[in-house]
Amino acid sequence: MASQHTRGRGAADLRDGQTWSITAHRVDTAALERDLRREVDGEVRFDAGSQGAYATDSSNYRQVPIGVVLPRTVEDGVRAVRVCREHGAPVLSRGGGTSLAGQGTNAAVVLDWSKYCHALISCDPRRRTCVVEPGIVLDRLNAELSRHSLRFGPAPSTHSHCTLGGMIGNNSCGSSAQHYGKTVDNVRRLEILTYDGLRCWVGPLSEQELTSVIEGGGERGELHRRLREVRDRYRERIRAGYPDIPRRVSGYNLDSLALEDGMDVAALLVGSEGTLATVLHAELDLVPTMPHKALVVLGYPDIASAADAAPELRSHCDPLLLEAVGGELAHFIREEGMFPGSLRLLPSGSSWLFAQFGGRTQQEADEQVQRLLSGIGKSEQDDDVAISDDPVREKRMLHAREAGLGATANPPDMPESWEGWEDSAVPPERLGDYLRDLLALFAEFGYERPALYGHFGHGCVHVRVPFRLKTEPGVLAFRRFLRRAADLVVSYGGSLSGEHGDGQARGELLVRMFGADLVRAFGEVKDLFDPSNRMNPGKVVRPRRPDSDLRLGPDYRPRTDATFLGYPDDGGSFHQGVLRCVGIGNCRSSSGGVMCPSYRATGEEEHSTRGRARLLFEMLQGHADSPISDGWRSTAVHDALDLCLACKGCKSDCPTGVDMASYKAEFLAQHYRHRLRPVAHYSLGWLPALARVAGLAPRAVNTALRTPGLGELAKRAAGVAPERDAPRFARWDFQHQWRRRGSAPPRPGDPNAVVLWPDTFTNHFDPRIGRAAVAVLEHAGFSVAVPEQPVCCGLTWVSTGQLGVAARVLRRTLQVLRPWIEAGTPVVGLEPSCTAVFRSDSRELLPHDEDAARLRERFHTLAELLTECSPGGWRPPELGADAVVQTHCHQHAVLGFDADRQAMRRAGIDADVLDSGCCGLAGDFGFQRGHYDVSMACAEHALLPALRRTDPGTLVLADGFSCRTQIAHGSDRRARHLAEVLAAEVHR
Prior knowledge:
Layout: E1 4-7, E2 12-13, E3 19-20, E4 25-28, H1 29-39, E5 43-45, H2 48-53, E6 67-70, H3 74-87, E7 91-94, E8 109-112, E9 120-124, E10 129-132, H4 138-145, E11 150-151, H5 164-170, H6 177-180, E12 187-193, E13 199-202, E14 204-205, H7 207-215, H8 218-241, E15 263-264, H9 265-269, E16 278-285, E17 287-288, E18 292-300, H10 303-316, E19 321-325, H11 327-335, H12 340-344, E20 351-359, H13 362-375, E21 385-388, H14 391-402, H15 404-409, H16 431-445, E22 453-455, E23 460-462, H17 472-491, H18 510-514, H19 516-529, H20 574-578, H21 597-602, H22 609-619, H23 635-642, H24 649-653, H25 660-671, H26 679-683, H27 687-694, H28 698-706, H29 710-718, H30 734-741, E24 753-756, H31 760-764, H32 767-779, E25 783-785, H33 795-799, H34 803-823, E26 827-829, H35 832-845, H36 850-858, E27 859-861, H37 862-868, E28 881-885, H38 889-895, H39 898-906, E29 909-913, H40 932-941, H41 943-948, E30 955-957, H42 961-970, H43 978-987
Parallel strand pairs: 6-8, 7-8, 24-25, 24-26, 26-27, 28-29, 28-30
Antiparallel strand pairs: 1-4, 2-3, 5-6, 9-10, 10-16, 11-17, 12-13, 12-16, 14-15, 18-20, 18-21, 19-20, 19-22, 22-23
C-alpha cells in the first residue's frame, strides 16, 4: 500500500478573531519519491535519517519533512518543483538551516541547495554586481570577490555557513547592516520560480516599465498586473502602516510595491521566507572592502543606558557597526569560560557599546574614532573607553559580542533559554525606554536574568528567554508573553522582528503590528504567487500557531535509558547533552578551527555535528511521529555517526559545547550491547592489548603485515582499509628500553619528580619520542619515572564505544598510579589524545572517582610542564628554526595550545601553526575500511596542500601519532614530535 503524508493545518488566531484554515492534503509519498528519482539528477532522500536531520532548524519548532532533495544544478531544482507540483506536495527551499522563527522546518519536500548549487556565476567589478546560485555560502562568496576588493555588504553572525538563498529568504542583516543595510538593500534582481511554473527575472521597474511588462502579457505580465492592483488597493495603508525604522524585517515588503515611481518585485520577495517563490539566481550589489579598521568600546552602568547613548554616538559618526553587550551576557561568558581574554580588554562599566570604523587607510579609520570621542566629550584615557586599531586585538574584543547566542543558549544555573522574542526592533532613539519596559515585562512573567545584546545602532535587541516550553502552563505563559511583547514593541513604533523574520514564531502576531487590512494584503500577495498554498505553508501568512509544532512542548517525553558515560556537565543526562545543539550551524563552516571535518568532506547535513545531534534527538523518541523508531539500534543514526571522526572539535568550536565524540561513544556502546561488533572494533579497539602481544615478536609481525597477500589478508580480516599501511611495531618498546636503562627512578613525593606516561603509540611504535622526552625533562631539571607495569588510558576502547572495558582499563591504571597521585606528582603525556582522556574523558567514564579527579589536575602536556612547572625555569637551547605545526584535534579541543606556542618561542622556533582542521586519520577512524576516502578528503582540505607549499627545509611538527601517520601517508614529509626537536638540541 502506498505510503501517504498528511499536511494538516491548525487555525491561526488573529487579534480580531479572524481565523485561517486549510483543508488537509494527502501526498502519495512513494509515488512522489519514485517520480523525483526519475526526473531529478540530484540526490533524492526519503529515508528516516534525512527526515530526522532536517526536522528542525535553529528555532523552537519541529516538523518532519516529506523528503529531501539536493539538486545537482539549478535546472534540477526546477524539475524537482515541477514534480512536487504534479503531486501537490509542499516545497521548502532551505538555506543554511539556521532560521530562528521556524521558517526552515516544514512537512514538505526540502530543497537543500547548499551541496551543489553554490556557484558565483559572474562578477562585474566595474558595476559592482555579481550573479550567484542560491546555495553559495556568504564567506565563500566574499572570498571569491576579494580579488576584486569587493564583498557583499550584510554579514550575519552565521556568515561562515549561511547561504545567499537563505539570506534573501530571511532578509538577513548582521552587524554590518549598520553601514550597508539589510539584504533587501543589496539585491538588484532575482530569477524566481513559482510553484505553478512561472520562471522569470524580477527587479525594480519604473511605472512606465511596469506598464510595458503588463502590456507584454503572459504569466509575468499577469503577475505584475495583479500586484499593481494590490498596490493600488492598499497604497495608503502601506504608507501609513509600515514603521519607518532601519530594522523592520517583519511582514512582506509591500512597501517595495509602493515606490515613488514603480515597484520592485525582487525587494518584495526578499524576506518572504520561501512562501512566495523559489529563488534560482540572484544579482547582487557589492561594496568595496574596508582594508583598515579601528574599534572603540564605551562602558555604561547598564544596558538601557547604553541604548540611550547609541543615538548620540550615531549622530557623530557613520560606523561599520554599533553593537551592544549587556552585563548579564558578560556574566554568562565569564561563568562558561568563553573568551575570557575578551572581557579583560573591555573598559570599566557593566554594559558596553562597540563602534567599529573602516577606511582605505589606517589613519582614516583612526580619525573616525577620534572624531567620535571628541563629539561625545570623551578621551581614550578615560576608564570607560578602550580603543584599538590592531586587527587581532579588535577580534578578541568583539568576541564578547559574538559569544551572545552560544553564551545564552545553556547558561549556568539557569533554566534552558529559547528564542521566540529574540530580535525585536524599535526606533533607535526609543530603544532605552523600550528595554526598560521589556525588562519589566520579563520580570512580570518570571523570566529571570535576561541577557540583552544586539545591534543598538539600529534599535535591534537580541535575547534568549527562559520560556518553560516543556509544561502546559509554561507554554500558555509563552503564548501570553508573545502577545504582550508584540503589543509593547508596536506601542514603540517598532517591529516584531528586526532580523530573524516571522516564520511560525511571529506570523500570528503580524496582525497586531500591521492591522487586519495589511495582513489581508499579505494573503492576497501569497495567493498571487502561490494560490494552492504549497510554498512553505503555515509560515508568515495563514500561519500555524506559535505554540504548536514545538520541538519540546508539554507532550515531549524522551526515553531516559541508563548510560555508560556520566555527562557531569549535563546533569548526568545524555538527553540534556543532545539538547545542547540549538542549530547555530557553525559545524557547517568550510574553514577555520576543527569542526566539522566530516561535513567539510561530504557537504552533508547528517554528517555535521548539528545533523547528528538532530538524529540523536529523534532517536530518543520524544515525539510520536519521530522518523527514528528503532532507538539505539537505529541504522540511520549509526550511519550518520559512522563518519564522525570523534575529533572533539565540536567540544571547543561549537558555541554550545556539543561533544559529539562522547555521544558517538555512548551510541556505539548501546548499539552493540550484547551484539557482535565490526571486526575493526576488536582489532583497532583492542590495539593496546594486541600491541603487547605483537611486542613478543615485533619483527615477525612487521614482516607478516608487509608480505604481499598475507598483509592484504590481515587487513581484510581486521577491517582495515586496504589503502593503509600498518604502522611498524618497535623492536623494543619504550618501557622495555626504560627498564634496561638501569638508573634508579624517583619515588612518589621526591622533589622534581615527574611521571612520564607511556601511551600505547609512543610505547610500541615511536619509543624514540619517549627517549627524547626523557632527555628534555632531565635537561629541564626533572627526575623522571616511567610506570613499568602495563598501563593504558582506554582511548581505543572509548573511540569504538567499548565503554565498559574502557572504564575497567582506566580503573586499573589509576591503581598503578595511585602512589604518585597521592603524592601530587605531576604526570606528563606525549600523545595528545591519551592526555585528553585523563583531562576530559575520565570525568565522563568515572565521574565520581576521586583519583581520576586528582589526576586530571596533575596531568600535563610536555609543553605545559616545561613552561609552567620546571624547576628554576626552563631555558631550552636556541634552535633558530622555521616550522609548520599540525595541532592534534584533541589538543585543540581539550588541552589548548598556548603552552606549546610559548615553548616554541623560547626555543627559537618560528612556528606557523596551521589552521588546517583535523588531519583525517583521527585514531582508528582513517584505518577502518570504508573511511579512507573521507579520511583523505579531510587531509586534502587544508593540511596536505599546506605541506606541499612548505619549503623542504622547514620542520614539520605534529605531536599526534595520527597526524604524523597521515602526513607520512599523504606526503613526502616526515613530521616530528616537539620532544624530538628539543632533544636534538639538548644532545647537541
